[in-house]
From TrEMBL:
Organism annotation: Paramecium tetraurelia
GO CC annotation: nucleus
Organism phylogeny: Eukaryota, Sar, Alveolata, Ciliophora, Intramacronucleata
Record localization: Nucleus
Name assigned to this protein: BZIP domain-containing protein
Main location: nucleus
Length: 240
């Protein structure tokens, strides 16, 4: 099993010097780590427990996915990571800008009705400045979340490319070995073919030589037969 490792999940809050007024009791939903984030794997940490707590899922359900469906477990960890960073950014802004998330948020000035005192220009300017600041803060949070999501997608895509490259290299090695074996078999077949051609050539030469010897023997027999017939004919003439 090879789950996607995350070490960023342990770095819950960064730059704690910027938050001197924050107490650990006020941040009970988060975890603090004094040392540097360590490399987390399924074997040496409670990664399933962390993912289950972030996504509000059953730990046994997450553990079953980690053991049986590693690909779905990786997507689940990416989802937990994105949710974690959204909650983290929201929590930091609650501490740094509490007026943005307070129950009594500054409202836009309503149109002055008859019989009421109109809003002063200074108060109106203060509300407009705060609304602009709130928009910038919200946009900053969105940009941070979008950048983190983009980095997560790039890391996942890079991992897929590395796995594809490793698989392709293994396939190339296997094909290269098969080609070498085919070359060796081809050389052996060529040697056998050359030996067969040599044997055929020798056999043809032997056949030609044997044919010549057979023809010479037949000529000798014909000459002998002709000489015998001539001698018998001469004997008959003498008797007459």
């Amino acid at each position: 099993m090879n789950p996607y490792h995350h070490y960023i999940l342990t770095g819950i809050i960064e730059d704690q010097d910027d938050l001197p007024s924050v107490k650990q009791e006020e941040c009970s939903q988060f975890q603090y780590y004094e040392e540097q984030p360590q490399f987390i794997t399924y074997e040496n940490s409670n990664l399933c427990q962390i993912v289950a707590s972030i996504l509000n899922l059953n730990e046994e359900y997450v553990d079953w996915f980690a053991r049986n469906k590693p690909i779905e477990f990786e997507s689940m960890m990416l989802k937990a990571k994105r949710k974690f960073y959204r909650d983290k950014a929201k929590f930091r802004m609650q501490i740094l800008q509490p007026h943005l998330y307070s129950a009594q948020q500054p409202q836009e000035p309503k149109k002055a009705k008859r019989g009421r005192k109109p809003i002063k220009c200074a108060e109106k300017q203060f509300v407009e400045d705060n609304s602009d600041h709130d928009k910038k803060t919200i946009q900053m949070i969105r940009n941070r979340i979008s950048a983190q999501n983009s980095r997560d997608r790039k890391k996942a895509y890079l991992k897929e490319l590395e796995q594809s490259s490793a698989l392709t290299s293994r396939e190339n090695d296997l094909i290269r070995k098969q080609i070498e074996e085919l070359f060796a078999a081809n050389e052996e077949i060529e040697k056998q073919n050359n030996n067969i051609l040599k044997c055929i050539k020798v056999f043809k030469q032997q056949c030609v030589e044997s044919d010549e010897q057979f023809a010479q023997e037949i000529l000798k027999q014909l000459e002998q037969f002709q000489s015998d017939t001539e001698s018998t004919a001469s004997k008959k003439v003498k008797f007459n």
